[in-house]
Amino acid sequence: MIKNYLSDEICVCIANYDFSENASKLKNQFCQFFKTVLIDSSSPIPPMEVDITIPNLYYSGLWNASVEYAISSGYKYLMFVASDLEIENIKKLCEYAVEAISYKKIGVYSASVKSSSRCAFHLLFNRTSSCIRECGIHEGFFF
Questions:
Q1: Domain span including residue 129
Q2: Domains in the chain: how many in total?
Q3: Can you give the pTM of this predicted structure?
Q4: Shared-domain flag, residues 94 and 129
Q5: Over its length of 143 residues, how does the chain's per-residue pLDDT go in tens digits?
Q6: Which residues contact 126 (CB under 8 A, 6 or more apart)?
């Protein structure tokens, strides 16, 4: 069966370690809108719907596996979702993601890093771009 996703350019990776029930719930919700894979970091009790299992390499391992999957599968955008999140309105969030990649005047910057941080990338602060661009570092567990 071919699914009619909101966008074929966006892949969702649910990253899980030991929040298996919620990971399965998130996968079942996101898969209505985008191609969704559940990557598990060798949880003691893994989710039933796991697509990829990796050694327990913490969030960095889950992030790397997600990026590798998205690139090898030909996706332009990756939505990374940690399994311990609760998202009130996934449908609306997915609609906003499609809107964000549709407008050339929407930019992305690393807002969670203080400008005084040694990790700050000053070129990313409060600047628009011609489209979504890479952030210098990632913080948080949904991006």
A1: 104-137
A2: 2
A3: 0.76
A4: no
A5: 457 889 999 999 999 999 999 999 999 999 999 999 999 999 999 998 899 999 998 888 998 999 999 999 999 999 999 998 888 999 999 999 998 888 877 665 545 555 666 555 555 555 555 555 555 555 546 66
A6: 109
